[in-house]
Amino acid sequence: MNGIEIAPCGPAALRVTGVSGDRERDWRTVHHLARGLAAEAPAGYLGSIPTYESVLVEFDALATTGARIRSVVDALLDAIDADAPLSERPRRFTVPVVYGGEHGPDLDDVARLTGLDAAEVVRLHGEPTYTVRCLGAPGGSPMLDGPAFPVPVPRLASPRTSVPVGAISVAGRQATLTPAVAPGGWCVIGRTPLRVMDLTQEPPVPYRPGDTLRFRAIDDAEFARLDGAMLRAEEVLA
Amino acid sequence: MSGALLVTESRVAVVTDLGRARGPALGLPVNGALDQYSARVGNILVANDEGAPIIEVTAFDLAFTADADVLLAVTGAPMGVRVDGVPRPMWEPVSVRAGQSVSLAGMTEGLRTYVAVHGGFDVPLLLGSCAPDTVAGFGTVLAPGTALPVRRSIDPIVNPYFDMSLFNLDVLVPYLGGDAIIDVTDGPDAEQFAGTADRLLREPFTVTAKSNHIGLRLTGDLPVRRSTEEVISRGVPVGAVEVPPGDELLVLHRGRGVTAGYPVLAVVAPLSLDDLGQVRPGQRVRFRHSTVEQAERNARLWRDRLDALRQRIGTIYSCLGVAAQLGLPEAVPSAAADHTIAWEVHS
Questions:
Q1: pLDDT tens per residue, range B138-186
Q2: Mutate to test the interface with A, among B227, B232, B248 (most CBs of A within 10 A)
Q3: Which of A28, A54, A79 delimits the end of a domain?
């Protein structure tokens, strides 16, 4: 397949990157590739981490070689329909958010850095219907394309040692929410009272790449009322 | 019959395995034993699958009492192993009787020691693995008072002549003192460090106290990233060498967040990752350039050694007449069958 770069990452991983110039197409390609590899499960294959336009393919260097995995990747790439949607029926999620204050300590900084006022940052963040691009660190965060800020948002000069569960954050031209407590260098602009991680489920988070997600501004009273509830997909009438 | 290990002393010890292979695709790090070689050998020595649950002891002493007869092996960083006060060797199977106490004390070098028990442990799994995940808040941590269920008890196996060593297999034991020599291959983004990338290889780096299972932080003459463009989040391999803002080199280990936005300068070879799982804060690390082909050859050599060890172990357990009890095939190679019988099995 054209428009693909494959680079070894040591003897136990390959990075496959879509460089077609069409981000949507590259995104679909790398996720289709990850699903194809999971279905084919060649000997020694461990798993894949598909993200926006690249996928890291991991394997056991004690059980196979990069060349063997590469040949499976090549065959799958030849067979992939990069125009096929990731999901025929994406599920929808709505995430309630309290913006600013103690829950969003970086909201004013983001406003300053983007030349907007805080209300405009909140409006732009709440406007789009986001597509879940991939599951990332920490703990299966839904990685989203960022809101339409005029400039990318710099990461914190000094990352926080601990970002709470439910933090709503932005960095560069990306946005996400945090399912689990972890260190983080992204700007935290709000917090959701909903829990997203359930270790008794596989996968432990309810959304998957291709699903859609919206943010909805709420007040402290609603935060208290929803505190600890699980994020679930909305009922979709068939 | 099964039993339990009753933990009497423990500071930093967990039950782990070779890692959560299904995790990274779902945003969870692979985690698992930071010295995979020592963990694999431990399990092989007690006739387990290499991926069976195993105790990982970090730095501090561990003591427990077995409430059933168990077969165990201690591998990894050197510690003084005693059973009811009597010194026992590491890197060999050790038969422990019900009621006996086992202590691991005084780690002299390295950082992580493994205790494998035949049959493994009955512990909760997440996505098929018991490996602790500190971010998800999952895992089995050993503390004084913990009763760790053992899946299978095994009648004592005794060497009647010396009652000391069951058998010495001459396992290749990693050397953990001095400077660690760490093989790296070029990372996919090495060109972003053009002109300074080779600083990684020139002078040794020193491991800082901020290092953990997520990654090691090292000080030294840092390569400088030339580009300043925002890198969009993407999957990063275990072993990725990065230069984040600040004054430290970052080498990601098995607890790494699966996605990040920093360019990857180099990737540590899998066998060298085991060595990095054993280096202490203050210890020096020298990075040595390797190729993917060389790293693949080394990995195959390692695999062959582990396979050969498993075969020798199987032969010896067969000769001792305990293969069936250990769940191993009974087939005894004829050449080995002649030197049997020196030991007996007490049941």
A1: 999 999 999 999 998 888 776 655 455 666 677 888 878 889 999 999 9
A2: B232
A3: A79
Nearest to A57 by CA among A24, A1, A17, A2: A17
End-to-end CA, chain B: 13
High-pLDDT (> 90) share of chain B, %: 76
**Residue B281 falls inside a structural domain:** yes
Q: For chain B, how many residues are written?
A: 347
**Partner-chain contact B257 A15, CB within 8 Å:** no
Ordered strands of the A54-59 beta sheet: A4-8, A13-18, A54-59, A45-50
Same domain, A146 and A56: no
Q: How far is B99 from chain A (nearest CA, A)?
A: 36
Q: Which of B295, B131, B284 is nearest to B213 (CA)?
A: B131
Strands B215-219 and B249-252: antiparallel
Nearest residue of B to residue A141, measured between CA atoms: B27
Q: Quick one: average pLDDT of B268-274?
A: 96
Please indicate, yes or no, whether residues B230 and B107 belong to a single structural domain of this protein: no
B133 and B220 co-located in one domain: no
- Specify the CATH number for the domain of residue A43: 3.30.1360.40
Mean pLDDT of B53-67: 97
Closest CA to A37 of A79, A2, A8: A79
Which CATH number fits the domain that encloses residue A199?
A: 2.40.100.10
Of A10, A34, A140, the CB nearest to B237: A10
Q: Are residues A206 and A97 in the same domain?
A: yes
In terms of domains, do A107 and A161 share one? yes
Question: Is the CB of A138 less than 8 angstroms away from the CB of B257?
Answer: yes
Q: What is the pLDDT of residues B281-335, one digit of tens each?
A: 999 999 999 999 999 999 999 999 999 999 999 988 888 888 888 888 765 454 4
Q: Are residues B26 and B147 in the same domain?
A: yes
Evaluate whether residue B159 is within a structural domain. yes
Q: Which domain holds residue A56?
A: 4-79
* B28 vs A contacts (CB less than 8 Å): 139-140, 204
For the beta carbon of residue B195, count every other beta carbon within 10 angstroms.
9
Predicted ipTM?
A: 0.91
| In-domain check, residue A215 | yes
Task: Of A84, A49, A45, give the one whose Cα is nearest residue A64.
Answer: A45
Q: Within this chain, do residues B142 and B212 fall inside the same structural domain, yes or no?
A: no
- Indicate which of B41, B238, B292 best probes the interface with A, i.e. most A CBs within 10 Å of its own CB: B292
Chain B positions in Cβ-Cβ contact with residue A180 (cut-off 8 Å): 135-137
Q: Is the CB of A10 less than 8 angstroms away from the CB of B295? A: yes
Which chain B residue has the Cα nearest residue A12?
B270
- From the list A48, A152, A172, the residue facing B25 with the nearest CB is A48
How many pairs of residues across A and B have Cβ atoms under 8 Å apart? 156
> Domain range spanning residue B45?
3-174
